[in-house]
Amino acid sequence: MWLKKCVAVLVCLMFLASAVNAAQNQKPSDTATVENDRSPRVPTFALNGDLAGELQVFTTRYEDTFAAIGHDEALGYLELVKANPGVDPWLPGDGTTITLPRMYVLPDARREGIVINLAEYRLYYFTNDGVQVYPVGIGREENPSPLTDAEVTMPLESPAWYPPASIRASYEARGEYLPRMIPPGPDNPLGTHALMLSEKGYLIHGTNKRFGIGLPVSAGCFRMYNEDISRFVYQVQKGTSVQIIREPVKLGLSGGEVWLEVHRPHEDYSPEDREQLWRETLEKLEAFRQQHPDVEVQRRSIELVVDQADGIPTMVGERLTRVASDKGQTESNPEEPAEPEQKLYF
């Protein structure tokens, strides 16, 4: 018995010595390579007309939540909720298959630099190879993010935060003290990195709070996961354009197909929000018809997209064209009634 215990202790000591030796022999560059990895955490999708990306699926584990999945997969909380109706975001369960909404109708904006669409809580970054899409937290209703056309003026590493007077006053009203400057560190709400914008007082920055990315939570700035902004700042050059828009209804063409994507503003979908989105969809369709008179869409498909407002692109129609032989036959038989002009029905 005594011999067996001695052997067991010896084995443990040998294993510990081996582990310590491996740690001591680890090259410093191995750790540095991980820490200094500046490659994007999200895919770069090629543009396919007005469409980009593809839907993906994810199988949950028993301990998963949408907040944790969003952080690990670089997706926003609300976009996961909208894309997976009927799934409990705080207890999806073990083995549940959920949709990762990585397919996009591109916003109606210049396809250059940074485009932030407040209505979908997403930042689009257009590169020579395509587009990267990141979730962002935006301004709350009482402190909305601005609609503007700005540019990046400066990247910041380990930024200090100088709270504006309005925020310090709100803290004081609650009986809390907020210093004039918060140094870099875990208590700094700007996170690890930031991009300063020409729109005075506004930044694209990290955060010391994981939850809130993909929601209206800020005082007007744009929050990204630290894991995203810490790489993103090294891709973006000074002078990069930053278009900030609000477009809850996006419509586009890809390979002759008409695609529609609609975003409700909140987790709950009120009748008022539904009515507003339906009006915006009709306006968008009318403008689209003027621009593309050779398309036809299905009203029922459009109604379903608006009813769900889940942020998932859906094909709702197609571009119709006549072949040359049909056109020649019509010209050679003037007595035949001409085909009615294709119209957009909605």
Short structural summary:
This protein has 346 residues and is of the alpha+beta class.
Architecture overview:
This protein has 346 residues and is an alpha+beta fold. It has 9 helices and 19 strands. It has an 8-stranded mixed β-sheet, covered by helices on one side. A 4-stranded antiparallel β-sheet has the order 16-17-19-18. The model is unreliable at 1-34, 323-332 and 337-346 (pLDDT under 50).
Task: Give the key terms.
eight-stranded mixed β-sheet, alpha+beta, globular, 346 residues, disordered N terminus, four-stranded antiparallel β-sheet, 9 helices, disordered C terminus
What's the topology here?
Blueprint lengths: L1 H23 L3 H8 L11 E2 L2 E3 L2 E4 L6 H8 L3 H7 L13 E4 L2 E3 L7 E5 L4 E6 L2 E6 L2 E2 L8 E10 L7 H9 L19 E5 L5 E3 L10 E3 L3 E2 L2 H7 L8 E5 L3 E6 L2 E6 L8 H21 L3 E3 L1 H10 L5 E6 L4 H9 L14
Parallel strand pairs: 6-15, 9-13, 12-14
Antiparallel strand pairs: 1-2, 2-5, 3-4, 6-7, 7-8, 10-11, 10-15, 11-12, 16-17, 17-19, 18-19
Question: How would you describe the shape?
Answer: globular
Q: Helix count, per DSSP?
A: 9
Q: What's the total number of strands?
A: 19
Radius of gyration: 26 Å
Assembly classification: single chain
Distance between the termini: 86 Å
Percentage beta strand? 15-25%
Q: Largest sheet at a glance?
A: 8 strands, mixed
> Which sequence of SSEs, written as H and E, runs from N to C?
HHEEEHHEEEEEEEHEEEEHEEEHEHEH
Q: Which range best describes the helical content: under 10%, 10-25%, 25-40%, 40-55%, 55-70% or over 70%? A: 25-40%
Average residue pLDDT: 85
- For the biggest β-sheet, the strand order reads 8-7-6-15-10-11-12-14
> Would you identify the regions where 5 or more consecutive residues have pLDDT less than 50?
1-34, 323-332, 337-346
Q: Structural class, please?
A: alpha+beta
